[in-house]
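Data availability (excerpt). The following record was deposited with the supplementary files.
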Amino acid sequence: MASENTRKWAIIPEPNSMTVGEGTVLLPYAGRVNESIAIGDGDFLLAHQLVADIRSATGTDWDIATGDMWSGFIRLRIADSWDFDSQDGGTAGAYTLTINTDGITITGCDFEGVRNGVQTLRQLIRQNGDVLPELQIADAPACQIRGYYLDATRGRVPTLAWLKQWADKLCLYKYNQLQLYIEHTFAFDGMSETWRGSSPLTPADTLEFDQYCANLGIELVPSVSTFGHQYVAMRTQELRELGEFPEDADRPFSFIERMRHHTLNVADDRAFAFSAQLVDSYLQLFRSKRFNICADETFDLGKGKSKQEAQRVGVAALYATYVGKLCEHLSKQGREPMFWGDIAVEMPEILETLPNNVTLLNWQYEPEATDEKIQLVAQAGAKQIVCPAVWGWNALLPRIDDAWNNISRIARYGIDCGAEGMLVTDWGDFGHINDPRMAVPGMIFGAHYAWNPAEDSAGKTDGNTAENSAGDSAENDLLERISRVEYGDCSARFVTLLRNASAQAVFTWRELVEYLELDDGTGNCNTDVAQTIPCLADRLVDHLSDCGNAMTVREARNRMMRNMATTIERIPQANRKLQQCMVEIAPIAAHMGKPGITAAVRIAMEGQLLLNRVGFALAGAHDVRDAHDVDDQQPSDCCALARDLECWCEAYAKEWNVTSQPSELHRIQETVWKAADELRRISR
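Predicted structure:
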């Protein structure tokens, strides 16, 4: 909780130890940052970061120097062996920060420690300008690996300029690792059929970004799908024969099928040659010794072309053998393999086969997650990094409560079970409708809890009122801190209002995609899609046996909307609350002076209002409710709603281009247009 002394400013992550004095320190109008050459910051980036923030906050220009002949009001130095006590002395990233009338001194036990101390000071300068509080901080991270994982493949490919901005932000919150998720959006030689039209990242982009991250003290770890999640590659003319179901390669594109059917046939020797080529060419572009081969969600393994081999050796053995070969291939080149742990956790016998240098990325995204899976891996003696999520996928507005509950829990479980660190994931399922700027609160949750996963600030527990109350208080306090530090919001309400707005998402992007993709294009139900929707999956076989024929798309959509009837009834009230959030957040955003995030939030809120209205209109078309508009309770004008959707989509596309390459924007647009066409159809 914020103390009396920190009520008007905050530091994220919260330091382990901080003593705040009664006085203040005035920064000189013509000061200097003295950065020791021993830090190893060749371009004096850390000093330049401070000078830039001082200029932005005060309008004054400071000097930079090194060496003991040049005095500096701000001094950056590497610790002597006796500068840290035994508790923090061996901790990479540890630092001390002292602010008093004699000046400001940051001492780190290594480059990362100095970097971390500089980020703390930058946050203070941004909030306080040239009048800083007297204080002493002794600080060190709980997790040695504090990583962020960004989906850069299933819809969005970020621009290089925006990736650099994101790396800057990760640095400010003391992250030290970043991974970009790649399926088909990298320009591998000989694979143009796979990456064409996706605005792929290039080797030159990667080399430049790798250097940029290294300068910030962030390890850029290569991550590429090598087993599952090969949907695009398995639909090409050249590579389709490597998939489990090559006969399905010409089916129409589907967001939902892309999430389900994407597995290599690893019984085919050509599959390993394909994966090894991806690995060998990609790793040469990174200085990191780590490599993430992914290998997650291999849903079709043993069901198609590899069925016979799976029956002979078992699915678990087939999976473990392939992953083991890839890990061995990497190890021979001096690399440390990583892969997602979902399959190994479900088939624990795989854990016994892992080489000692392999790290399992143990992901759990449930808001009420337990430590069962993390304990399982720990008891097996395998190395692991725990992986929660920012909870932004399939949504225009981030699910902030879910992110907080998930991240705060997983961080504590990871520390308790001896995990090597935490990797906070940011996914783009169903086209990456979520603007990456919407993930900032969740990213900061990850920074905070990877650094200091306090026992008393863990996620809420439904059955315990006292714990719920403590959890609410901890979350609310952190939301206020984020509002101050990240958004410059003196009211400290911005993120809370964003959280309140996200709670009004009744009919979401996911549900719109599900509704539209139930149509297989012939008037029949797409059973692959229906099987992913709980209210339909159980009825498919029963319907066929009862009626003697397949379920029609009309029947499937009727059942889906009837299942949502109670939820749909919330829409009028939800939209009124959402509009009220928009009214309250507008003056706050105006005073923040951050037009980029203001525009992104406005577009997201307007989009969710429209999605709710679409859900309301579709429910009326399926006789789930009377056909009344959300706001005025008059008969809906579906044609007018269709036009509103199309106009919104144009504004959304402009915001997309602020952070991302064109890539798969067209798929988002086509989905919105299909929704508009459906609205016009039902209005007839």
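Summary of structural features: The first strand starts at residue 17 and ends at 26.
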